[in-house]
Amino acid sequence: MARQARTVIPGQAMHVMVRGNNREILFFKDADRKIYLDWLREAAQQFACSVHAFALMPNHVHLLLTPQNEDSLAKTMQSLGRRYVQYFNQQHHRSGTIWEGRYRSSLVDPDYFLRCQRYIELNPVRAGFESAPQDSGWTSFANHIGRNSDRWLVDHEHFWKLGNTPFERQMAWATFVKEGSPHWEDRQITEALIRSKPWVSDIYAKKLFKDKPELALIRHRGRPRK
């Protein structure tokens, strides 16, 4: 079966997920997570991807990125994936892939960006690993509420619109995440990601894909509404 073409548009945010093969563990210790983030930063800078958010779960990773070129996302993920496989196999005296096939990716409607970032930073809570987002040391939530300052992370323009000062933005983000996300929204994001389809409104889909409407075929029930 032919591979499904990815929808990647330079300058448009992408939600990306990669899983461990057979749902196996990817990170056994904090040093593993740190080196993964270090190499993510290097690959993103080398291949022109802006990294907005992340969540490192035991057996999968969520990222929110904006590629600047058509091949930025692919090159970033390929470089990071190959490098981490070599490290992981050396550390654990094994060989072969550690990934469950290709990474999944979903283009995100700009008006849905903050909802997608919230979905990612709530992942440890939704999975039952933490009781609150601030309890996780391996998501970007701490950066967005001012507890960490990883300068390589790039705030999206919609995050900047949350307030006129860093404090205002941090408070607004903490409140937004604390509200949580409705089940239908989580379901939509997950479905789009698993199928590598855009998570966009009908209006935005018509604007972006007027010549190729099949690229945004998923029709969700319920909101989000603008």
From TrEMBL:
- Coiled-coil stretches are none
| Signal peptide bounds | none
| Domain named Transposase IS200-like: residues | 9-123
Q: Which InterPro entries match?
A: Transposase_17, Transposase_17_sf
Q: Which GO terms describe its molecular function?
A: DNA binding; transposase activity
GO biological process: any one?
DNA transposition
Name the chain's protein: Transposase
